[in-house]
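pinging the channel bc i need a second pair of eyes. not urgent but kinda urgent?? the chain im working w is below, pasted from the shared doc
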Amino acid sequence: MKKIEILLVEDEENLHDTLKLNLEMEGYSVSSSYDGAHALKQIQSAHFDLIILDIMLPSLDGFAITETVRLHNIETPILILSAKNTSANRVQGLKLGADDYLTKPFNLEELLLRVAKLIQKTNTSKQSTAIDEYRFAGHTLNFKLLEATSNKGEKITLTKKESMLLQLLIENKNTVVTRERILQSVWGYQVYPTTRTIDNFILNFRKYFEQDPKSPVHFISIRGLGYKFLD
């Protein structure tokens, strides 16, 4: 079973080491960052199942990171840790897109419970949105049977990865799905060296399902970010 990937962003070394050790003892895989700008680069170049994020960081604070992450349509759950314990700070963090907010000092057991709940909530949401069949523009996709029928009545046999990528894009229709998320979800790599593989898959989808593959209306590339499905 693949380990849950957590990015821990905290510049206070003693606290960072304590949290990392305890999270790893719970069975999580933990990547570390001590700096805001470095953390943002990690988030944009790799997939994580959860981000634990301090507010007061060198170079870029946690609020700015949260806002940037959400503006890029990265939906990874964010748990903010902060010495700022006013309700205004809490509201600001949640408004910017954080999923939870824990003030320092905090109980370690409570943090671990909140981490587990956020991950469980995300997994439940993913399972509940899973689809077996989908229709658009006269095409029918059957993810269980790994096949599709085009609007011209042609049968198309899909590979397992084609089916997985189609399902991921459709479950997130009208939303940009980042290359990093695709590579993690479909290929299982935290970091992958090239996006050419995904580009080839998208080209195949356009051949299968677009009226004019050179002017796609369903499978759209968003330069520098990822891909979007429109039905």
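so The helical segments are 13-25, 36-45, 62-71, 87-95, 108-128, 160-171, 179-187, 196-209. and The chain is about 40% helix and 20% strand. — does that match what u expected or am i reading it wrong
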